[in-house]
Write a structure and sequence with these properties.
Shape: globular
Structural class: alpha/beta
CATH topology of the largest domain: Aspartate Aminotransferase, domain 2
Number of strands: 14
CATH superfamily of the largest domain: Type I PLP-dependent aspartate aminotransferase-like (Major domain)
Helix content: 25-40%
Oligomer: single chain
Strand order of the largest sheet: 3-11-10-7-6-4-5
């Protein structure tokens, strides 16, 4: 099964959906009866927006139809557009980049460090007079270095956008991810911590950003619209609305978040205990060990050759081979394949008139490339071929399965790590 939430769909989700179906209103707005809303309308979208905004400690949330829409809406809400550059990691899902392009801005690829998130040093080196924002992606549930990135953004008067699509449920120094930047974006597709089938959400504490996000996601309308609002719409919007059915499922899933995260953290902790003494094996750096989602265990091997041999025997791949998350494998980005031959925004005047010229090529981020080539992602709760996490455990697995799979990893890894030293201590595996 792809993600933790999908494995726990049950009676709670069914009852929430039935309540909506029995009421008969699937649209996010109830039909007004004079000055009253039809009592059959359940208002699930309003409810889940409020609950997630409260969870984040923020005033506002806008539910949308995907994580990609959430990123695009957040960028629109922040005013990112033609001529702007947005610094983004070269290791991320394609939506981080495509949302920038469809904002008519330019993605500037930066290195990741051992957190597998943005390297603050490279971010600062990539800032130009055209830089408008930094997009911090919390890859595989591990928060980026938000203190450093927020400090850089503030120093250079830039916007900080949090791409939290893989990290719903994670916290950074006591605060939920999404609450540290100027806006945060979540995804609720089948590979995420909790799911509504598909869907996303933008969160922010800024009233103006919220108003703009709402208008962008719903044809220019004011927040929580009650009418046509002719003459009051600030700009042309789109339709990224969430439905009552999606919100019903998400509400039930949201209530399971503590159970999900607690289980994942326990399983990951045990898995790491069993393999931590392997010679030459290292783990990615976790910025807040008590706050990560724990959906994935990422291990770093001594070199690419060893990593590939282990991956092959386990029936998986090294992180560098992930098709949807590594810039080297994104031919549509490398070749700037936009929907028209002109290749806007890369070649259009708002960017070129400001001295901008962007070229992408394989190998342009050597530190990222070297790290991903010798790393493996082991599933703790997300089995995603796009992340090369075919080997591991699922949300429904208990410690017995964790120990069995970890023992299997030890057995295979030791065959290729023998020359790297000897284990520091034996680790007892429960029969």
């Amino acid at each position: 099964m792809p993600g933790p939430g999908m494995e726990l769909i049950g009676e709670e989700e069914i009852q929430e959906v039935l309540e909506v179906l029995r009421g008969g209103y699937l649209f996010r707005y109830g039909i007004s009866l004079g000055s009253e809303v039809d009592p059959r309308f359940k208002g699930k979208v309003y409810q889940v927006e409020k609950e997630i905004a409260d969870y984040c400690g923020l005033r506002h949330a806008v539910a949308v139809n995907s994580g990609t829409s959430a990123l695009l809406t957040a960028l629109a809400g922040l005013g990112v557009g033609p001529g702007d550059e947005v610094i983004v990691p070269g290791y991320t899902f394609i939506a981080s980049l495509s949302s920038i392009v469809y904002s008519r801005a330019i993605p500037v690829l930066a290195e990741v460090d051992r957190t597998f998130n943005l390297d603050p040093h490279d971010v600062e080196a990539k800032i130009t007079p055209r830089t408008k924002a930094i997009m911090a992606v919390h890859m595989m549930g591990n928060p980026a270095r938000l203190d450093e990135l927020r400090a850089i953004a503030d120093k250079h008067r830039l916007l900080l956008v949090e791409d939290c699509c893989q990290a719903f449920g994670a916290t950074y120094k006591g605060r939920p991810v999404g609450a540290i930047g100027h806006a945060g974006a979540f995804s609720f597709n089948v590979y995420k911590t909790i799911t509504s089938g598909d869907g996303g959400m933008v969160v922010t504490d800024d009233e103006d950003v919220y108003t703009r996000c709402f208008a962008f996601h719903d044809q220019g309308h004011s927040p929580l619209r009650t009418g046509v609002e002719i003459g009051k719409r600030p700009f042309i919007g789109l339709d990224f609305r969430f439905t009552e059915l999606q919100a019903a499922v998400l509400l039930a899933q949201f209530r399971k978040l503590p159970q999900i995260v607690g289980h994942l953290r326990a399983n990951k902790r045990r898995y790491k205990e069993i393999v931590s003494d392997l010679p030459g094996l290292e783990f990615r750096e976790i910025t807040d060990p008590g706050g990560e989602c724990a959906t994935m265990l990422t291990v770093i091997l001594p070199d690419e050759q060893v990593a590939r041999k282990i991956a092959q025997e386990l029936g998986t791949k090294v992180a560098a081979d992930a098709g949807w998350h590594v810039y080297n494998n994104m031919e549509q980005i490398l070749e700037q394949r936009t929907v028209t031959p002109e290749k806007c925004p890369f070649t259009c005047s708002p960017y070129t008139d400001r001295g901008g010229e962007m070229r992408y090529r394989k190998g342009m981020l050597p530190k990222t490339d070297a790290l991903l080539a010798r790393s493996l992602n082991i599933s703790i709760g997300v089995s995603d071929p796009g992340l090369s996490s075919a080997f591991g455990v699922t949300m429904r697995d208990g410690l017995d399965v964790v120990e069995e799979r970890a023992a299997r990893f030890r057995q295979v890894a030791l065959k290729y790590l023998k020359g790297a030293g000897t284990p520091k201590a034996s680790v007892r595996v429960t029969p």
